[in-house]
Write a structure and sequence with these properties.
Length: about 325
Amino acid sequence: MHYRSLGNTGLEVSVLSYGASPLGGVFGNIDEAEGIRTVHTALDHGINFIDVSPYYGDTKAESVLGRALAGVSRDRYYLATKAGQYGQEEFDFSAARVTRSLDESCARLGVDYIDLFQCHDIEFGDPAQILSETLPALVKLREAGRIGHIGITGLPLRALANVLDQVGPGVVETVLSFCRYELNDTALEGWLPYFESKGVGVINASPTGMGLLTPRGVRDWHPATPLMVETARQAVAFCAAEGIDIVKLAVQFCVAHPGIVTTLVGTSRPDNIEANIRYAEEPIDTAMIARVREILAPIHNHNFTRGLPINRDPIIPA
Ligand code: NAD
């Protein structure tokens, strides 16, 4: 496993990291014992960064992750969780709520310190409140030593930049973007010089586009358009015919980018995380990646967007 520095946080994180949302049943029911073994397998193979949120499975992901981490030495992993999103339509970025959220998350996770505490999906928040209330509350928690670092997450890249444009240096230390650097979308790449200029570390989530680029495909909640789903199916079929796992290409494509510090992949199955770690370490299959990206060209960067109208990316839907 290779490691990279996460912006100016001082954290050296594995280039492939573990996203715990599947532990909350986000991608279907899970076997908890398997889910716990998945976390241990990730740590045993060099993953040292884990991301979760109270939102995933209505707090279930944090609870299962907490049970997985019980007894694991606290210096073996960096733990990231979030505050502000609690349900599909339930957001509360008030200072009081995010402060209480930290205590609740720590209790579920069985820890007293969070390495990276993130505002979850700021595109659903009023930017004025995020700037004047949420981030100052997180700064207080950082000053009190309850959290190590502060991050923001979201789908529209413009929304992340809008916040970074208006805060002082070092207030926000990381951004987490998802579905914007994967085989069918490289929009995040264009923003990397900007994020670097702001001194923030870039976390990329969802290398398979939340299941789009997997043999099983998307769940019914997935916001992909029919053309995205159909084009992704063609890429999956092509890989299957060539005897290649499309997830291998999806993981390799993301971890190979030196400007992306780490890529969070989610699964509740030990065999999947083991395969993903192996893929991250094997020589990159550039020829197959190029062929698959050709198949995906009709939907390139035609992703979905969401959030308050002022926070949305200008996207041409496929
Ligand atoms: P992902 O692209 O990692 O895909 C997860 C899906 O891929 C699951 O269905 C999983 O079973 C499947 N999968 C994983 N490895 C596989 C393999 N080897 N073979 C077959 N299928 C495989 O999407 P994700 O889980 O949404 O993203 C990863 C993590 O990133 C999340 O768990 C979460 O921690 C984080 N994330 C954060 C945000 C945010 O903050 N707004 C948004 C999205 C994701």
